[in-house]
Amino acid sequence: MQFTSEQRLDDGVFEREFVLGEIPGVLWTPASASAATPVPLILLGHPPLGLRRMYPRLAGRARHAAADGFAAATIELPGSGDRPRWAAVEQARADLRRVMEAGEPVGDEIVGALILPLVEKAVPEWQATLDALLSLPEIGGPVGYSGGVISIGIRLAVVEPRISAAALFAGSLVPAAMFEEARRVTIPLYVLLQWDDEGNDRQAALDLFDAFGSEEKTLNANMGGHTGVPQSAGDAAAGFFTRHLRQSPDGPAARR
Predict the structure, then answer these.
(1) So where are the chain's domains?
(2) Best CA proximity match to 71, nearest among 125, 156, 153, 134
(3) Against a cut of 0.85, is the pTM above it?
(4) Predicted pLDDT of residue 107
(5) What is the band of 235 on the pLDDT scale with cuts at 50, 70, 90?
(6) 41 forms bridges with which residues in the sheet?
(7) CA–CA distance from 256 to each of 9, 39, 81, 105, 216 (Å)?
(8) What's the rounded mean pLDDT across residues 238-246?
(9) How far lies 62's CA from each of 6, 44, 146, 164, in Å?
(10) Lowest mean pLDDT: which of 7-11, 109-113, 193-197, 248-252?
């Protein structure tokens, strides 16, 4: 991991851009983070729209996390932003747009072609990033995963034992194969669902939530479209991470 820029934001949060191989990313740490007092980490997932476009929202989430005493980090997804174009996924995106514009149902073949290659490539990149981040003296874990492409979150929750809790944004573009993986998820989950999300099949999202194997899973459903997430839902997600990632001598995070 090589840091390429750094700045101290007005609330004291330390923001550093980095590259890991060909993967760009950003790390935010609270002023309290140090080798003497390492902090837990939240990985910030996001849709494949490019880090530059998503930066304002990601930085806002990171600063909120820092106020709660957490570091936060994100990376550019394969085929997005300044990374090389990915012909197969670009074709799948075009097929998805064509079907949706025609008002036709989105079949699992298109969803699989769009999502599964992204999961296969992005999850190992997230794991490599996690290796590098946890080697920094000011970051000590536990680790959470927040938001992003829900299928990436599912796969990470299954294969990455260092992730202790996940907050996911419900989406219906989930290949059928991922439902079986969802049954293998056991970490605590907080799932946010916008009831009237114009790009989401509500029943598919509910079926996926039902499939999760976690003993502790919370569904926070709110009226409104994709961009109408209420502040209270974000506050509830922050409380979820505080419960599961805050290190204490007797707390569950400390015993992981």
Answers:
(1) 2-83+118-255
(2) 134
(3) yes
(4) 81
(5) confident
(6) 71, 143
(7) 32, 15, 35, 43, 16
(8) 92
(9) 15, 8, 11, 18
(10) 248-252
Measure the N-to-C terminal CA separation of the chain; round to a whole number of Å.
26
Which residue's structure tokens are 């459903």? 221
17 near 32, Cβ under 8 Å? no
Kind plus residue range of the DSSP H or E element containing 109? helix 108-134
- Extract the tokens encoding 41: 């980490």
User: What span, in angstroms and rounded, lies between the C-alpha atoms of 173 and 206?
Assistant: 13
Distance CA 252, CA 40 (A): 13
- Cα distances (angstroms) measured from residue 48 to each of 73, 97, 245: 16, 15, 27
Tokens 């075009």 sit on residue? 94
Please give the single-letter amino acid code of residue 31. A
Instruction: Output the pLDDT for position 226.
Output: 67
Tell me the per-residue pLDDT of 128-160, one tens digit each, with 9 for 90 and over. 999 999 999 999 989 999 988 999 999 999 999
- CA 80 to chain CA centroid, Å, is 15
DSSP 143-176: EEEEES-HHHHHHHHHH-TTEEEEEEE--S---H
Asked whether 217 and 210 are in contact (CB, 8 A), the reply is: no
Length of the chain: 256
User: In the numeric block, which tokens belong to residue 144?
Assistant: 């959470």
**Per-residue confidence band for 207, with pLDDT thresholds at 50, 70 and 90:** very high
- Which alpha helices (H) appear in the chain, and where do they start and end? 51-67, 87-101, 108-134, 150-159, 176-182, 202-211, 231-245
The C-alpha atoms of residue 75 and residue 230 are separated, in whole angstroms, by 26
- CATH 3.30.450.40 for the 2-83+118-255 domain, yes or no: no
Place of tokens 């989105």: 106
